[in-house]
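Researcher: I need the complex structure. Ligand is 1-O-phosphono-alpha-D-glucopyranose. Inputs:
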Amino acid sequence: MLGVRKAVFPVAGIDTSFLPATKASPKEMLPVIDKPLIQYAVEEAIGAGITELIFVTGRGKRVIEDHFDKSYEVEQVLKARGKQDLVGLVQSIKPSHVECIYVRQAEPLGLGHAVLCAEKLIGDEPFAVVLADDLLDGTPPILAQMVHIFSHYDSSVLAVEEFESCESTSHGVIDGRHWDERVISVSRIVEKPSPELAPSRFGVAGRYVLMPSIFGHLRSLKPDLNGEIQLTSAIHLMRMEEQVLAYEFVGKRYDCGTKLGYVQATVDFALRHAELHETFDAWLRERLGGAQPAVWTTGEALNQPATPVTGLAH
Ligand code: G1P
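Model: Output:
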């Protein structure tokens, strides 16, 4: 069985939730403290053993390519100023064993279409899809947990989490049966159903490990009413022919496609940032009148070791 070596990062989409910030810069470059969202996503993929990063980009997204490219100017300035540690930091953004490949999605025809744009670069092997506006935080990295499940069952794996019923309209929602504590055999999947029609409260977070058979299903789909080809619809078709699993990952998802999720990520990451955590912690307590704020609990929880998943290599 082939391992998972390649990951697709669909980054062509235009964001409207963060306008005007994202008018001229990609939403994937929004920083949480000092690192852009796309870099968190790439680090997670590299942590899962991925060595080929395929970015499906569009107009106005060139800066993502620049971010993962060598920057002679920045490195020269840092060297001249004797900031060797920062030279190391910028050089480590793309480790030398990792390759970045860019392909353009000329029209905004949906997530399924974006994945289809990478078909030739993927070929006939399993691959991951990583949506950078879902910032997933966990140990081991969430994609590494999924690759482990994939290797064990030799089936496509979708990352899922339990959501509030009112949030069904922002997720692909699965139906299925638990195999063990965290693994669900998917019987069907519906894209963004209304709460009354949602088959469960397990929604897809933006991580997928897919068999290459997905491409045939993507090619067979016609655009939906919004003119988009949905990855969820192709997964639903795939499920009719082969097993698809959902995996309740160990960790936390921040929906950085929304302002609230983005601010929550920023606060939690600041609370454990090497440079910031003490001063930010003190400031936040004072700001909240000495009260124990809700975010505090989350920040502390994040600092604790994640519950291990049985059989997962650390
Ligand atoms: C996409 C998928 C959806 C999934 C979600 C996760 O939606 O279509 O099935 O649950 O990502 O974030 P989007 O958030 O791009 O609208």
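Model: Summary of the prediction. The two ends are 22 Å apart (CA to CA).
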